[in-house]
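Memo to structure team: turn this sequence into structure tokens by end of day. - J.P.
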Amino acid sequence: MPAQIISGTEIAKQIREELRQEIAELKEKHNLVPGLATVLVGEDPASQVYVGQKEKTSLALGIYSERHDLAADTSEEKLLSLVDKLNKAPKIHGILVQLPLPKHISETRVLYAINPKKDVDGFHPVNLGKLVIGKPDYLPCTPHGIQQLLVRSGIETSGAEVVIIGRSNIVGKPIANILLQKKEGANATVTVCHTGTRDILLHTRRADIIIVAAGKPKALTADMVKDGVVVVDVGVNRVGKTAEGKAILVGDVDFDAVKEKAKAITPVPGGVGPMTITMLMLNTVKAAKMATGLV
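Reply from structure team:
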């Protein structure tokens, strides 16, 4: 039986429609417009694309959007001053500082300076700590998107053996903590594999669900999985260009081979990617509701 292709594009579309209706209701009933500020330092092409997509999505959903583009040589003090200003701005409920930052700026200092109630990326240590104890205000966007892909595709996580390949602060560690909570859409037995794992096959071959965020093409191959596995591919790797000059994108999974054994699998592109921005919008709406006592 062919694998179910889990379309992040379609699921993100469903969630955005739900958000669009919720935002319209907030405006009508409470005169509340959620506000998101994005901050971009420098001219990194990929970061410019990401910020542009976030701005476009905000406007499409009815979220108030502010974009702050700063020169690459902007001082850390000036950036921290902007963050402080946005922390105090009543129209702004969510703040996103696009990473990576130039090397002369401390990402840690900047992320820690964001008011945790406006940290819609979910990276402030206060929010990560709340996640670990199972009482989060916000879930980090990509891990939350992964969870929603599983839940909305009917994938049972309770009691499942989940293997995560990768231990980054952005994906690996948060999704591990999300899925081990004693909650719906979680309650899994979670193993995190990484570069120090001695026998990765021992873990992946018994996994019911594998989430791959290794940052390397074909990090997961067909011989590493059992029949009927569910695979979520978080990777985005550029492996060349088409004749028209368009980038060729692949994930961290040998998709064509693994899909022959999998029960369900996410594609790249069109899998996890569309979910990340959608979860950012969801967090911004929640931030607005929290700021006005609606949750």
